[in-house]
Amino acid sequence: MPENHNENPWVETLKTLAISAVLAFGVRTFVAEARYIPSTSMLPTLEVNDRLLVEKVGYRFGSPERGEIVVFEATEELQRQGYNDAFIKRIIGLPGETIEVSGGVVYIDGEPLAEDYIADQPEYQFGPVTIPDDQYIVLGDNRNNSLDSHAWGFVPADNIIGRATIRFWPFDRIGTIEEPSYPE
Description:
Blueprint: H1 9-30, E1 32-36, E2 51-55, E3 69-72, H2 76-80, E4 87-93, E5 98-102, E6 105-108, E7 111-112, E8 126-130, E9 135-139, H3 149-152, E10 155-156, E11 160-169, E12 175-176
Antiparallel strand pairs: 1-2, 2-11, 3-4, 3-11, 4-9, 5-6, 5-8, 6-7, 9-10, 11-12
């Protein structure tokens, strides 16, 4: 049976655009989305105007790990302070751990955390605090210039949008976002 080529080209174009829009919405909502870096809070790892791919599927099957860079919706405390945009920070403290920042060092359950990715040692004191279930402590890599958990508290797991995986802009910095390895 011959194919019907009599369909109006405008109708075909509209069908194609509608299908494309639905697919794009589905991918952005459930799989991955692009984000940009608006501030210096993640220097030196991420620079202002870096463009990243944020993967959203992984946390449906597992939990965030220490060292991962995550994008999250503003917490209730941040919203009370007038912040509504998403944030990007590094997971430092996991549920059930006790975190303290003292003398320029982050301590997890009393043990210092080796951090070769930060801009400078933190010049503030924080904690000790024990992280509740299903919540995290996140800090910017530019510790002294980052609005992060040391200023406003915990990030609920439900607020986490996804994990930064790939930098796709600028071209001279394209690549995966490396995560540090910590001794067990």
